[in-house]
Amino acid sequence: MIEANSLAKAFKTRTGTVQAVSDVSFIARDGEITGLLGPNGAGKTTTLRMLYTLMSPDRGSVRVDGIDVAQRPDEVRRHLGVLPDARGVYKRLTARENVAYFGRLHGMSEADIGERTRTLSQALEMDDILERQTEGFSQGQRTKTAIARALVHDPRNVILDEPTNGLDVMTTRAMRGFLHQLREEGRCVIFSSHIMQEVAALCDRIVVIAKGTVMAQGSADELRALTGEDNLEDAFVRVIGSEEGLFA
Length: 248
Ligand SMILES: Nc1ncnc2c1ncn2[C@@H]1O[C@H](COP(=O)(O)OP(=O)(O)OP(=O)(O)O)[C@@H](O)[C@H]1O
Description:
GO terms for molecular function: ATP binding; ATP hydrolysis activity. Keywords: ATP-binding, Nodulation, Nucleotide-binding, Transport. By secondary structure, the chain is an alpha/beta fold. It folds into 2 domains: 172 residues, P-loop containing nucleotide triphosphate hydrolases (Rossmann fold); 68 residues, no CATH class. It is built from 9 helices and 10 strands. Helix 3 packs parallel to helix 5 and helix 8 crosses helix 9. The longest helix has 16 residues.
């Protein structure tokens, strides 16, 4: 379970201060997929970075499985699998070596790494690319490698920044199936997207963010009821206050 409480984060730039996140609170439960939905620049990536210990918030707190991120970041990292916005796979290594390298960083045995790589490769349908050097991989192949690497240590909580960004229809469908599988396994899954259809198709709970603030949250049905709109698209437009970039 991941809890975000009143998160805020500002960046100083040469031309002034950018308030990337001003007030974000939500709870992402185990066995559920929680989607952060918002237009470009809404503060999704910054929120996720605070959740996975890359950035400390100016205000507010994060707990992962009840552990305070500010107090025990190393322990939190063991509970988290993260697909960051920059996928950054090592080009000189094969997909398998990329995954194994992370497994070793987590202190796993070679036998456990081998077993886990087999499971993930099957689930992500990447058997055909496992022994290839990642140099020249397509975006989808890089994403799969980065996800396998993120999950090698079998974390209970999974955070994915725009996991279907740049993927074709078939790979997107496979990715959806994979996220459902993580949910069936009882994990807490959070992902961000700026595409409403994507979030509506996958999520148990939707957290709508705009201008660094949570505008509404709940299941698709709850959001419809909240806004009085039968159509989810209309509900989102009402919540965000504009049609800005939520539709594919
Ligand atoms: N390191 C940084 N320095 C300065 N400004 C930043 C930094 N990181 C983010 N921002 C700004 O904070 C705001 C929120 O950015 P963020 O990347 O969190 O949004 P997002 O919802 O993930 O957007 P997208 O869908 O485009 O990825 C934007 O205005 C962005 O320019």
